[in-house]
Amino acid sequence: AIDFNTGKEFNMTRTGGTNHADIQPATPEDLAVLKQCFGGSYTWEKRPMLIEIGSAKIAASLFGMPNGSGDITGCGMDGSLCLYFLNSKSDVLGGITDGEHAQIIQSAASTQ
Predict the structure, then answer these.
(1) Is the pTM of this model over 0.85?
(2) CB-facing half-sphere around the CA of 64: CA atoms within 13 A
(3) Of the ranges 5-9, 74-78, 97-101, 106-110, which one carries the lowest mean pLDDT score?
(4) Three-state SS letters, the chain
């Protein structure tokens, strides 16, 4: 993953999610970089991201507050983060589109 605003890169692993991806950083080092992107700690902020899958870069929006549970032990984070792509939906409120995530995805996509 590449943080759109800072250019910082870190690895993450999808741990679940139905309407959007639930992710965790792959290692404690990746968690440290992820937190740097959010100003050093978890936050309610949503950030534009570029997700690299193979040779493709996909615009996304990452929510900076862990929630739920996570499957990766030893990564240093309890819970998982929500990663939205184009047309991703919320898991609450009947699976509606999150307008703020959609705007953030569009800003990340504007350079692609």
Answers:
(1) yes
(2) 19
(3) 97-101
(4) CEECCCCCECCEEEEECCCCEEEEECCHHHHHHHHHHCCCCCCCCEEEEEEEECCEEEEEEEECCCECCCCCCCCCCCCEEEEECCCCCCCCCCCCCCHHHHHHHHHHHCCC
